[in-house]
Amino acid sequence: MSKHEKAVRRLLSKPKDFAWSELTTLMASFGYEMKTTGGSGRKFTRSKAGSSFVIHEPHPGSILKQYQVKEFIAFLQQEGRIP
Predict the structure, then answer these.
(1) Under a CB-based contact definition with an 8 Å cutoff, are residues 40 and 57 in contact?
(2) Residue 80 vs residues 6, 65, 77: alpha-carbon distances, Å
(3) Is 64 helix (H, G, I), strand (E, B) or coil?
(4) Which pTM does this prediction carry?
(5) pLDDT tens over the chain, length 83 residues
(6) Helix H or strand E segment including 54
(7) Among candidates 25, 46, 26, which has minimal Cα distance to 35?
(8) I need a labelling partner for 9 at 20 to 30 A (CA). Which of 19, 30, 47, 66 fits?
(9) Does residue 44 contact residue 34 with C-beta atoms inside 8 Å?
C-alpha cells in the first residue's frame, strides 16, 4: 500500500488528530494548489477542473477540527477523488 493510499485510509477513519500538513500533502497529490485568501483562510484550487475548497488553517496548533475533517472528506468524495 502506498503512502497516498495510507493517507486516504487514515482520512476516511476521521481521526481526531488529522494534521494540516496531512491535508496539504493529500491536496497536492490530487493536483490542487494552495492560495492564501487572507488571514488564516486557504483556498485549494485545481485549474483543470475549476473546483476549489476553502478552509481555515488551524492555529496556533496544526490539528484540524472534526467538522473540517468531515468537510474535507465530503469535498473529495464530491470531486470523485475518494470513495
Answers:
(1) yes
(2) 18, 23, 5
(3) coil
(4) 0.89
(5) 889 899 999 999 999 999 999 999 999 999 999 999 888 999 999 877 678 999 999 999 999 999 999 999 999 999 998 88
(6) strand 51-56
(7) 46
(8) 47
(9) yes
Query: Is 5 exposed, middle or buried (CB count within 10 Å of its CB: 0-12, 13-18, 19+)?
Result: exposed
CA atoms within 13 A on the CB side of 13: 10
Which single residue is written with the C-alpha cell 490530487? 30
Q: Which three cell numbers stand for residue 52?
A: 476549489
Place of cell 497529490: 29
The domains found in the chain, sorted by start residue, are: 3-78 (3.30.920.30)
